[in-house]
Amino acid sequence: MTRKKVKLAFIVNDSARKATFKKRKKGLLKKVDELSTLCGIDACAIIYSPYDPQPEVWPSPLGVQQVLSKFRRMPEMEQSKKMVNQESFLRQRIAKATEQLKKQTKENREKEMTQLMFQYLGEGNIMHNVNMLDLNDLAYLIDQYLKDINRRIELLTRESQSQSQLPMPPPPVVKDEVANVEEEGQGSHAQQGLNINMDSMQPKENWFVNLMSGANVDQPHVFGDANQQSGFWPNTFFH
């Protein structure tokens, strides 16, 4: 259940005023205690009332004297920097409420003129029953809408121009990569063929050197060997 908003006015009834005083005083001292404990600040409270012969102090008379001594040691400008009384507090609240009222009045007027504008645009009627004040406000509102539209158009135009001026990324090169792969493949096959030819040539060179030096080598005829058809000297005459 929501609490009812209290009207800030003097309570005429004595008993109700006394009950409210006791209740609010207890709540105020509790809040000061919580503020001092949670935030670690120096605070005190002195409450005079017609219901008690002596003022009620918090946290103690000694604590109140310490806080007041600390306050008096401050420069005079610092003392009155954030000091308020009942009159200044009410003035601040009135100024704040007045500013909120002006803001709300302006928003309501803009909504009213916007509704009027769309009403005449939708029905296509001529504004016969509109006074001069409404026409001036409606003209101002339309002018603001046009300025917002022009600013939006300029922003979108600058964004499109900046995007069109960006350099296009180069297309990916595919042919060079394929050519490199083919060259690498051909190079590996050529090297492999050269190694095979050199291996097959080695026994022929050894046999020829032994023959020229006159060494007696009992070795089968290499030219007629069917296993050497893939060698360096293929010749069908010696088969």
UniProtKB/TrEMBL annotation:
<keyword id="KW-0175">Coiled coil</keyword>
<feature type="coiled-coil region">
    <location>
        <begin position="87"/>
        <end position="115"/>
    </location>
</feature>
<keyword id="KW-0539">Nucleus</keyword>
<dbReference type="GO" id="GO:0000981">
    <property type="term" value="F:DNA-binding transcription factor activity, RNA polymerase II-specific"/>
</dbReference>
<keyword id="KW-0805">Transcription regulation</keyword>
<dbReference type="InterPro" id="IPR033897">
    <property type="entry name" value="SRF-like_MADS-box"/>
</dbReference>
<dbReference type="GO" id="GO:0045944">
    <property type="term" value="P:positive regulation of transcription by RNA polymerase II"/>
</dbReference>
<keyword id="KW-0804">Transcription</keyword>
<feature type="domain" description="MADS-box">
    <location>
        <begin position="1"/>
        <end position="49"/>
    </location>
</feature>
<keyword id="KW-0238">DNA-binding</keyword>
<dbReference type="Pfam" id="PF00319">
    <property type="entry name" value="SRF-TF"/>
</dbReference>
<dbReference type="InterPro" id="IPR036879">
    <property type="entry name" value="TF_MADSbox_sf"/>
</dbReference>
<dbReference type="GO" id="GO:0000978">
    <property type="term" value="F:RNA polymerase II cis-regulatory region sequence-specific DNA binding"/>
</dbReference>
<dbReference type="GO" id="GO:0005634">
    <property type="term" value="C:nucleus"/>
</dbReference>
<dbReference type="GO" id="GO:0046983">
    <property type="term" value="F:protein dimerization activity"/>
</dbReference>
<dbReference type="InterPro" id="IPR002100">
    <property type="entry name" value="TF_MADSbox"/>
</dbReference>
<protein>
    <recommendedName>
        <fullName>MADS-box domain-containing protein</fullName>
    </recommendedName>
</protein>
